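User: quick one, fold this
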Amino acid sequence: MSFDAAAIIQQEADRFAAALVAADPEQRVPTCPDWNAADLLWHLTEVHEFWSAVLATGATTDEEVQPLEEGVAPRPKDPDALPERRAAATAALLEQLAARADEEPAWFWYAAERTVGAVRRMQTHEATIHRVDAELTAGHPVTPIDAEVAAAGLQHVLRVMWPASIEWIPDWATLRPVAAVEVRPQGGGDRLLGISRWSGTRPRDGKEFDAPVGRLVEDPAEAEGLPRATVSGSALALDLWAWGREAALDHLGGRSEKVAIHGDPAAIDQLSALVAEGHD
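Assistant:
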């Protein structure tokens, strides 16, 4: 990426904190309804602490990460202590990122992307998207995302967030393709998204599963015969949509953006189900 990831993380974390200072700690987060404002503040705090620890310890395997997950310091009981802890967590993360090159190995929850670069990209977009959550929670106009950052955020969903779910499908499940969607950002960079559903019965308790997953399709022949749809819009609009924050488009400060979706209703339904899976 050509933009300064560290500057973006710092800027977005500062905006995030400023918005939440103005919010009632009990205010629900519209885009993450299970959380209130205090929960959202804690979430970004523990995220930055965790990834700082991953980089500081040089962890590259699941076994090395497990004690880091188990050793997280508990959430402070005093809500007034959270802003300072969040600021320290962000500073520690940025210090670790500054000391490492993208190509260096580092643990990541998607096995295909275990590098410092993957962590850097993830934290850039995580800070940005949660800043949007914070502004919505506080009732503030949503600050538009820089076009280059938004384009990278959309690609991160297409290349990492959605495909990672395929890696976690259990071996007792079956996978079937159900739709193909052309993703068309303004200015080019069109991609073909294949949507499949995995389903099956979990042997240990008989629970039934049926959920969508997505991945980019490099060979168009793989999508032949599937219901098709097209989704288009600016990089900003598609970024917020893909991260499950399309509602933020109605609250942008000083501009109007929309996502347009057209095509076979069956494909649109599968696309809606995929987006509804969400990203925290």
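User: anything notable?
Assistant: Helices lie at 5-21, 37-57, 62-70, 82-98, 116-138, 147-167, 235-242, 265-276.
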